What does this fold into?
Amino acid sequence: MSYAEFIDLDRYPFQVEGPERDACIAQVREDLAQDGCAVLRGFLTKTGVEALVAEADATADKAHKSFNRTNAYFTQDDPTLPSDHPVRQFFDRSNAFVPADSFAKDGALRQIQNAPGFDGFIQACLQEPSFHRYADPLADVIVNLAKEGPGFPWHFDTNNFTVTLAIQNAESGGAFEYAANIREEHENFEEVAKVLDGRSDKVTTLELQPGDLQLFRGRNSLHRVAPLSGSTPRYVAILSYVEEPGMVATPERAKQLYGRALPIHYERAGLRADTFID
It folds into this structure.
């Protein structure tokens, strides 16, 4: 089976220049401009969803599972700061990531990622003049596996934009929540603190369905996966793009998310397009 059976190309003809593709791109751009998030409902076919569920099930044992406490920046505590500072606010995290090197080149996930015209379509939607796949060999395309527990607490992404495919929902909970663009020109610790304390009026709750494609500005928008319940795991594929070539995660973050760091993480640890904490 090929990507053409996994993606609803009738509904989203991203490979064909024309008014339908242009209209889709225009709508995504409008949504991103509004709050940094756009969702293409039913981007995958039923066959595509089933294939990704099967692949996620088959690779689930390769997921790095972690149960710890983390802040929104994936950094260590800084006792020089006030006790209520966002950097010093730590939350329980129960999550797992299947790393990129777990997925075969001819598997469903890689076929979708490598579909002709897909990267160009995403770039056109994001209007990014400098646009590259994340060079991290553990993280360019991954599957987030979340089971019953606290979910993935509030955090910022390392890369500017994140592209996700909803594969399977948990029985209950697991909504995607985000505070759009609260960190554009500076850290904005005051507003971050409001989100962490549950006092912010800037939080949006999004219920994604299996087969939905989401484009999200996760570098500047604080976000989380809400707590989940039930025995069915929540699967979400994450395809990452960045504005600078060669970018990878810091060694600390790679170890936290994937249980290991590779030589490339140490070699390129300082390569960033901005000066945010993470």
Summary: The domain at 36-102+130-267 is CATH 2.60.120.620 (Jelly Rolls). The chain has a mean pLDDT of 92. DSSP finds eight helices and 14 strands in the chain. The two ends are 39 Å apart (CA to CA).
